[in-house]
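#lab-general

N.A. 3:47 PM
ok so I finally got the sequence cleaned up, no stray characters, all 194 residues accounted for. can someone with queue access submit it? mine expired

B.Y. 3:52 PM
send it over

N.A. 3:53 PM
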Amino acid sequence: MQVPLLETKRLKIRALSLEDLESCHRLYVGIGWADAALSDEANREQRQRWLEWTIRSREQQALLHQPPYGERAVVLAQSGQFVGLVGLVPWLEPFGQLPFFGGKAGARTTAEVGLFWALLPEAQGRGYATEAARALIDAAFNTLNLARILAGTERGNHASRAVMRRLGMRIEENPFPEPPWFQVAGILEAPSAG
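B.Y. 4:20 PM
back already:
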């Protein structure tokens, strides 16, 4: 159930390694995901623990024949320069609240495969998120035989919503106020076999 090295015209999507620590740290600081209450060094230490866990998790998932959840490095094909992350994550939400899944208030929580991307600020606006996500979606549908992939964002994140649209996702807002973090989902079903 491994996803191999993925290559597009401009990008390579590869497994993370310990050498990616500084790039991942820079990404988290650059997009505001670092913990503002911590020092730069403490944030770097958190990122190192996450990176070590990510690498070990990938190895264990393979041994257990489980989906290859986790982030992958997105690098420029020509130079190998790190520009961001893309990955598959387990996503647990009350999806039944979305119109696509029935639109019921207070729906029970279910699990879906989520698609994740994050790019360095200087790499944004160049189509890299769409290109990397498309490569991972194609691999997930073809290699893992997934039925669908979802991606989530906040109502005001127009850039992520634009990526979802370019990927062909059906975009739905949670019409209910709870939970407050479950706001927008992009839904993409696998192409019909044919």
